[in-house]
Amino acid sequence: MRQSTYRAPGTGHARKIGFALSFALRCMLALTAAAGAASPALAQSFPSKPLRLIVPFPAGGPSDIFGRVLAQGMSANLGQTVVVENRGGAGGVIGVDAAAKAPADGYTVALNNGSSVAMAPFTMSRMPYDPRKDLAFITSVVKVPEVVVVHPGVPVHSLAELVQYARDHPGKLNFGSSGAGSITHLGLELLKAAAHVDIVHVSYKGAAPAVTDLLAGQVQVGIFDVPVVLPHIRQGGLRALAVTSAARASALPDVPTTAEEKYPTVISDNWYGLVAPAGTPPAVLARLHEAAVSTLRSPQVAEQFAKVNGVPIPASAQDYQAFVAAEADRWGTIIKAIGFKMEE
What we know:
Layout: H1 11-45, E1 51-55, H2 62-78, E2 82-86, H3 93-100, E3 108-113, H4 114-123, H5 131-134, E4 135-144, E5 146-150, H6 159-168, E6 174-177, H7 183-195, E7 200-203, H8 207-216, E8 221-225, H9 226-235, E9 239-243, E10 270-277, H10 282-296, H11 299-306, E11 311-312, H12 317-338
Parallel strand pairs: 1-2, 1-3, 6-7, 6-8
Antiparallel strand pairs: 3-10, 4-10, 4-11, 5-8, 5-9
Helix pairs in contact: 1-10, 2-10, 4-12
């Protein structure tokens, strides 16, 4: 008499599912192990072709000089050419956006500025990327002091005198900037808020035309990168009143800081960093960081940066990310307080 075997409904099906899940899990673990093993190999093989460094401003300016010096040093460190691509517009946002949307393979990096990662998210109603989610922060690169300047026709010789003159003539002074929402705009807005004065903003498409009109007296006040206006200060075309940094600028040792002039909150250093698209492999980011930091610590690079009044500021990726977050908090508060928003 044949013995019957009872099998619970679905038992064979469940075993098949269990086996499939077990097989899938083993495959996942194997892939993870393979990826981990591949990381050192990836770091050793990268880069195998030229890289692209996007500078989000036109050629010839200080940011372009910083970018080309950095690219040259990184080329030597990486053993591959780093090609500079100038892609200006929207205060640096257009160039950084191009990097954010590039393949996350390490072959595209960008020089970012404070405006493109710490200010634009609060001034633009439709930001094309989220700096926190779409970018991988590699290192800070360089810091550039800014200076408050006036046309010699304005009868002031100190920041205190400028503030008093603006109070006595509300709305009569104009200040030029390199663009709405730029550091040159928001730095002066910060001074206006701290000093409680009314100075009218005039926006330009870049620092060069703004400085041209400042020299001609079409606008009377401005805050610009020291290297942009230093020749005009030395030639007497502009008068320097205060440096918007924590310390005096080496190129202008006799010009006091805003803190010395009783405005310690008016700090608007311009700065640049290096970013890659989010999702770039950690081993590749580490290799890029190593090449950039090694370049920035070179005495020769420090000397080249100093020619345009830049100070190298290499940092760990974590420290740079924390710095950007702190700058975003600071400028976000300022931008909200003055109620500024970019026009569509």
